[in-house]
Amino acid sequence: MKITISKSELLGSVKAPARIASRATEDFLACLLIDAKDDAVTVSAMNFVESVRVSAPALVDEPGTALISASSLMDIAKALPDAAVELCADESGAAITCGKSKFDIPALDPDLFPSFPEVTPEEELSIPAADFAFLSKVGGSFAAVGDKAREVLCCVHIEVGEGVVRFASTDSYRVVEASAAIEGAPAAFEANIPAAFVNRIVPEGDSVVIGSTSQQIVVSSGSTVYVTRVVAGKFPNYRPIMELSVAARASLAASVIIGAAKRAQSVAGRGDAVELSIRPGGVGVDIAGTRGRMADAVEAETEGECSVFVNHAYLADALANVKGGAVSIQVESPLKPLAIAGDGVRMAVMPVRRL
Question: How many CB atoms lie within 10 A of CB 314?
Fold first, then answer.
């Protein structure tokens, strides 16, 4: 195999696959499979759970395949000058030349690398890139990543209904749902996708297309294809938690309540709770933390009176999902979840019981 490719195209094609390969324990899975033919090069990585494949334009002098260490190729690509890169490789080794710089690194037999999974989706959902960036970042923000005992809580639950796409996640202490109206969305679509996988998807071009079968998820955006398995199990029915019999509500600017929550964190220790009180004319934010006390109040349009204690970090995380504009806060009782909603997002945070 012999190709010539720009540094930017090489780096762009290696970046996402290298993240997958970096977590592999077997030597051949810690490598990238590079396939050169026609006028393009395809870089693939997999770890038997996730797979990713990126294509980039290249001048292919000699078509072929090579299996090269992901970490070595990534480190070299980042260090190269901004110029054309020549890559020559076979199973005995690879030579990389850029300007006056030349590198020789080992390579493995490409036949050692597993076949990339080819998935024919039974259902597909196309989401504009900007909407996907919002939905994935906010809708997946409360996933319990790393909870092996409850794998479904490590997921982003994707559901479509009536032209609205919803991404939701929960760690059982809080839940978030981000939504967006998507023109041309299918009548129905539902899947549980690992949140860590969703976080690695970088939208390219105009859209992100999510396809599913009974066992696999395939996501394509621009020149990149991501594949992972569907997580079995039923996602918790979180909607009743958000449907409160409201005793008190407040509407105010997101920036105002975010500022008060940040001030509360300045005296909070791990596990400390903040008291959020809705009262006539405003919202009280009070904390008796392990590092001190704070009492604050912000102006708001309010109805009713009620207060609730919630973990200070959970409150800050929830408010961080409301970037601007107005935020709505609702309380039913001190023992019921705190409901927070903003443009395209709604959340519930479980209360802290005070003895």
Answer: 20
Higher pLDDT, 354 or 201: 201
pTM score above 0.85: yes
Residue 344, C-beta contacts closer than 8 angstroms, at least 6 positions apart: 134, 138, 178, 179, 180
Q: Which two tokens stand for residue 341?
A: 């909603």
Q: How far apart are CA 84 and CA 221, in angstroms?
A: 26
| Amino acid occupying residue 228 | T
Task: Give whole-number Cα distances, 45 to 14, 27, 67, 231, 330, in Å.
Answer: 9, 12, 10, 21, 46
Q: What are phi and psi of 88, to 5 degrees?
A: -120, 130
More confident residue, 171 or 184: 171
Reported in sequence order, the residue ranges of 300-352 that DSSP labels E, i.e. its strands, are: 301-303, 306-311, 326-331, 338-342, 345-349
Using DSSP, how many helices (H) and how many strands (E) does the chain show? Answer: 7, 27
SS3 104: strand
**Residues comprising the chain, all counted:** 355
Q: CB of 243 within 8 A of CB of 271?
A: no
* Number of neighbours of residue 122 by Cβ within 10 angstroms: 10
